[in-house]
Structures are given as C-alpha cells and as structure tokens.
Amino acid sequence: MLRLFSTSKRSFDTLSEQEILALAIASEEDDARIYMSYADILRPHAPASAQVFDDMAEVEQTHKNMLIEMFRARFGERIPLIRREHVRGFYERKPDWLRKTLTLDRMREEGEAMERQAARFYREAAKRVSDASTRKLLGDLALAEEGHEDIARMLEGKHVSADAKAEEDEGARRQFILTYVQPGLAGLMDGSVSTLAPIFAAAFATQNTWSTFLIGLSAAVGAGISMGFTEAAHDDGKISGRGSPIKRGLASGIMTALGGLGHALPYLIPHFWTATAVAAVVVFFELWAIAFIQNRYMETPFLKAVFQVVFGGSLVLAAGILIGNG
User: Fold this and answer.
1) Contact by Cβ (8 Å): 84, 184
2) 106 pLDDT exceeds 70?
3) Per-residue b or e along 197-208, where b marks 16 or more CB atoms closer than 10 Å to that residue's CB
4) Cα distance between residue 277 and residue 282, in whole Å
5) Kind plus residue range of the DSSP H or E element containing 228
6) Is 277 strand, coil or helix?
7) Is the pTM of this model over 0.85?
8) Which of 78, 128, 187, 292 could in theory staple to 255 by disulfide, Cβ–Cβ 3.0 to 4.6 A?
9) Which domains does the chain have, with CATH numbers?
10) CB count, 10 Å around CB of 77?
11) Please, which residues have CB within 8 angstroms of residue 142's CB and are 6 or more apart in sequence?
C-alpha cells in the first residue's frame, strides 16, 4: 500500500544546504536556457524583444556564476546533480516543443511567472541555510528575482521602441490569423454551409432523426478529415509564411467538423420537428458567428460578410429543404 503512494521525488525539506545550492545553480542555468530559446524563436520576426530575452539570460548566467562561486567556497568543485524535476512541489518549466507554440505576449507572461517562482524558491531556501554568507546570497537573489519584472521593463524600454513593439505585436497578430484564424474560418464556413443541404435534405426526405444524425455526423467528420489534410498538404508554410501545416490542418479540420456537427447534433432529439427547429436556430447562430469572425479578424465589412455568409447559407439551407421535400 505504501509503495502505491510513494514517489521518487525528494521533499524540499529534506535537502541539505549543499543540495539547495546545487538546485539553485541548475535552476538558474535552465532559466537562462529558456530565455535564450525564447530569443531564438523571436529573433526572425521580433528582434527587439529577442534582445530583451538575451539580456535576461545574461542576468540568469550572472546569478548562476555567483552561486557556483559560493558553492566552491563551501563545498568544493563537485556539484551534485539535482534539478527541479527531482524535487516534489518544485516549480516546473515547459519543454522546448511547447515553448515554440507560445505567442510573444505569452512569452512575456511566462518570463514574469518564472521570476516570481524563482523569488519564492530563494526565500524558502534562505530559511533553510545556517551559513550567513549563503543566506545573504540567497536573500539577495530573492530580491533580484523580485526586481526582474522591473529589469525586464527597463530592458524592453531600452531595446523595444513603441513603434517596434507595435510592429512586433501586429506581426504576432498577423501570424495568429494566418496560422489559426484563416484556416479555421475556412473550415467553419465549409463545415457549416456545405453540410446544410445534405443534412436538411436527409431530414425532410426521411423525417427520421437518427438517420439524419448519422448522415450529418458522417458528412461533418468526412469533411473535417478532407479539409484538414488538404490544408496541411497544399502549403508547408515556408514560403507563404502561414505557419506550421500541422497547426493549420488541425485548425481547419476541427472547425470543419464542428461546423457540420453543430446542426447535426440536434437530431439526437427523437421528435423530428423539435430537432429541426433547434437545428435551424443553431444554423442561424453559426452563420452570424462566421460573419462576425470575418469582420473581426479578416476586416471584411460587416454588411458584406452578412450578405456573403448569411444570405448564401440561407440559400443552401433552402435548397436542402426543397430537395428533401421533392
């Protein structure tokens, strides 16, 4: 029974002063590496913000060197291998492949969170050491980490002008639209509009809600798979700058399927006219949502978006009903 609840991680309270210093060294080294990875990700399209993270990485390297000197003075040259993932309850960092998906604003937020977590670690670590010089160093580092948010703002003011920041933010917004919004919107339009005719034709032809649901489900899933693979395959994003084909394919495929499922799910209701009324309401909201997204992100004039989507979708819906009643 005890084995079931056991863990290979150490409790922070069981760490020796030598291990606390070793953990602090490893943590500063990891944080510096994370800031450098942020800088590498941002350098092609946001060089000013990349320089901010480069400078923050240098600060972390300075902290690491201070800790190493303290460790040498007290314990010698051999630093134990202990990292944050070895300690229970210790703050963790995202792996490299997840950091690559972060937006610029999210990277800034992650950096602020990292500094707050590091400051808490140093405050707790200072309580657990008895050596006066070590305790002073840990306390100083806690204050330094607490002040990193101000340092980050200072560095951002140094490297990132208002115009550069606006340009970087606009670039990040444009990339978000190209990678997620544009393919997702295309999928939502295709899934919502193209499945209207077959679903409502099947509904009025059979007046069987379960059969209609199965037809709608198959149409939505099939369209989602088709749109997802098409989006991912036709452009690798390297020349067009539209981003990862996998991300675009998932955005397009998922939104296509959701667009079709929206008015197929009501046919799980066994009463035909109730299900059809609910499906019609869902279609109304789907079409207006598409028009809103077009206006909000694609800068399509609202009336033009309404005419293209709502009017066009209504024609497809009417065609499906007429065919089903034919």
Assistant:
1) no
2) yes
3) bbbbbbbbbeee
4) 9
5) helix 209-234
6) helix
7) no
8) 187
9) 2-160 (1.20.1260.10), 172-325 (no CATH)
10) 7
11) 119, 122, 123, 126
